[in-house]
Specification:
Strand content: under 5%
Distance between the termini: 30 Å
Number of strands: 0
Structural class: mainly alpha
Radius of gyration: 20 Å
Helix content: over 70%
Number of domains: 1
Order of helices and strands: HHHHHHHHH
Length: 229
């Protein structure tokens, strides 16, 4: 198998679409943010899915940015870096939730409860170290990066504009969660997931068409050794 830029582009598109599907899937019937939930197998599985989702999203948005790096300009770069940083920290938080918190649920339940409180947007009673800062960085990167990156993609007109617009609107709307119950966090993630699916499929189609065009050009080129009629 020959690895080409279009092959990597299609892979990035599939990664983004898969990330969107996982982003939606992990929200369905999500267990409550309580210490009792942390010790369950479901908790580990869901947060492991979040780690995979964040990694796939990073690969997907990198493919989107590389596809239109020249057209996107400074806005695209800033949006990509912010959005990627948000997902990178999100992946780290999900890793901690999946593989570290369960081992502390019995020995340090108060600490685990404080971490869950911070993750839910509340104020902890104890010291959670840099977790609160990491949670804020993830939130700011997700919100600001999603808005800027979505607008940049919309302006460039390479990928599906409806998906780019939805990404910007969906991430911007999360600011409302400051005044809404935590239960709404699950609902607000769905539009972003749909946007990632739309952008991923659009990137995959774009790169498939680019590959076809490249093959057709090679077939008609005199350099291919074939007669041109």
């Amino acid at each position: 198998m020959t690895i080409t830029t279009s092959t990597l582009g299609r892979a990035a598109g599939l990664a983004a679409a898969a990330a969107g599907l996982l982003f939606i899937a992990v929200q369905i019937n999500h267990p409550p943010m309580e210490v009792a939930s942390v010790s369950t197998t479901e908790w580990v599985v869901r947060n492991s899915m979040k780690v995979v989702m964040a990694a796939l999203a990073l690969a997907g948005m990198t493919g989107m940015y590389v596809r239109q790096v020249r057209q996107a300009g400074l806005m695209g770069l800033v949006g990509y870096l912010l959005f990627a940083s948000g997902y990178l920290v999100m992946m780290a938080i999900a890793f901690v939730a999946a593989y570290i918190l369960p081992s502390l649920a019995e020995t340090a339940p108060a600490y685990v409860d404080d971490v869950l409180t911070v993750a839910s947007g509340g104020s902890p009673t104890g010291d959670v170290g840099l977790f609160a800062t990491a949670n804020q960085i993830s939130g700011v990167g997700y919100l600001a990066g999603g808005v800027i990156f979505g607008i940049a993609l919309f302006r460039v007109r390479v990928l599906a504009r409806w998906a780019a617009a939805l990404l910007a609107v969906a991430t911007a709307s999360t600011v409302l969660l400051q005044v809404l119950p935590y239960a709404f966090h699950r609902l607000f993630a769905v539009p972003t997931g749909v946007a990632l699916i739309g952008l991923g499929v659009s990137l995959w189609r774009d790169q498939r068409q680019a590959a076809r065009t490249s093959r057709d050009s090679s077939a008609l080129s005199p350099a291919s050794g074939q007669a041109v009629r």
